[in-house]
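Pilot study result, target chain (513 residues):
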Amino acid sequence: MFDSLSEKLGGILDRITRRGALAEADVDAALREVRRALLEADVALDVVRVFIERVKQGAVGVEVVKSVTPGQMVVKLVHDQLIETLGAQSQAIDLNAPAPVAIMLVGLQGSGKTTTAAKLAKRLTERQKRKTLMASLDVRRPAAMEQLAVLGRDTGIDTLPVVEGQQPVQIAKRALEAGRLGGYDVVLLDTAGRTTLDEAMMVEAADVKKAANPHEILLVADALTGQDAVNLARAFDQRVGLTGIVLTRVDGDGRGGAALSMRAVTGKPIKLIGTGEKMDALEEFDPARIAGRILGMGDIVALVEKAAANIDAEKAARVAERMRKGAFDLSDLREQLTQMTNMGGIAGLMGMMPGIAKMKNQLAAANLDEKVLKRQMAIIDSMTPKERRNPDVLKASRKKRIAAGSGTTPEAINKLLKMHRGMADMMKAMGGAKRGPMAGLAQAMGMGSGMPSPEDMKKLAEKMPGGLPPNLPGGMSGLPPKFPGTPGGLPGLGGKIPGLGGMPGFPGLGKKK
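Predicted structure:
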């Protein structure tokens, strides 16, 4: 969602950081460009004015102008102000209340309330071990209640049975009573929406609030609506009283203005963001991480979380031991490819790496084919167990059979076998180094085996137009020296995020045909 804003701000700030010294005229010119970029991203005019004024107050002064790297200081000020505008600190859903805790979702029709209710219920159940009940209060939209019931069955979350003829206030009271009698920790109330703001919707939401007295009232807003999202948030806050905001479709092509504006205009925190269609595509909103993404500094924390969520630690330990002994077969390679796919594929992982935004054009020109991972897995799936354990038996006739079974060619099979041999030889040479199953793949892809050395960073800087992002809080060029909250490192990643040396080199990927 923030790609356009990120690209524009990145270009503006790159020009500043190349200057040895900055005069007030330089700062003014840069901030005019920043102002234009924010307005084009649909950020509210009042928010842009305050943003620019605060950055200018910090940027124009003797200390900054005489600084050794004044351009970097301006970038830091923009970064800090982005964090401040987005909310300074992340705020999670508050469940600190007597059970059952009522959470009410409000918003326009089509904003994703029902899907968000199911995602939130799944998150509360799986991550916080809260017994959750979902109830649909939408008696106007056809099949709205059935939609929530289907999502409940798919996610294994209980939903309130439908009673024909009941109105939203009656359903809310029945849901809370069922929550008390059933021993539920949380009751989610999915209210009705309209295509536009209208009085009837507001009155209904206010009545439900009065009857249910929810602990949290969350506005579910579509990030693609731009300026209208700000008016929506202001209207609901005045009539119902919001405690937080959930932004959906953050993975879409919206320009990011809603996120920057809603928090500043309403003063209500953005608590969650929907990042995809899958039921687990709901993340806590962290201003510092989003600001880092906007300025192209990557999102190491999100990469850490993806690794922790998608890598089976026990399986990783078993495969690591096999690697240590040099017994790395094609079944092990398939396991690595599967884990990489689950973590978002090449593009998903690289998008969270610091500095990658500056290589966006080169990566686009490289034309990487994400489907190659699935094709490689299909090749391995078409082999017999014996062939996976001992690839040396794969002669021409067997390759022809595997190619027919996987819908590929013998040449694609040869490329896969070459990649596997390279990884196996490398892991055997590493001897006693115990590493997770992703580490071998990372190093075979030219990404190193640990945090980059100064020499690696220098090489990477030479590949990037304009150099690396400036030294902002968190270590060298935006790379945190350690990862908070991950004692002992990351499961399956050898305890470290792979280095960035030689990032564009991906064996076996090639260009799209």
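One observation from the pilot: Residues 64-68, 354-358, 432-454, 463-513 have pLDDT under 50 and may be disordered. A full batch analysis is planned for the follow-on phase.
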